[in-house]
Amino acid sequence: MDEAAIRNEVLQALKSVAPEVEPERLRCDRPLREEVDLDSMDWLRFMASLHRRLGVSIPEEDYRRLDRIDVLVDYLRRRLA
Asked: Matching Pfam families, A to Z (predicted)?
């Protein structure tokens, strides 16, 4: 799966948790949880949605470092390789 497809899956998963999100307005240089105002339960639902969509297990200890869209997309690309 290429980077654009992974990014699309990430944005779709995000919209499933936060339907008000406008992907074109997200800034990749800001922490995602601040940008979208996700609480801890929303974040868990987002991670679970990514797991279902991509079949990638994301260990809980990795959640903290997956704070930006670009970082998350790169992480998922490497896990899918």
From this structure: PP-binding
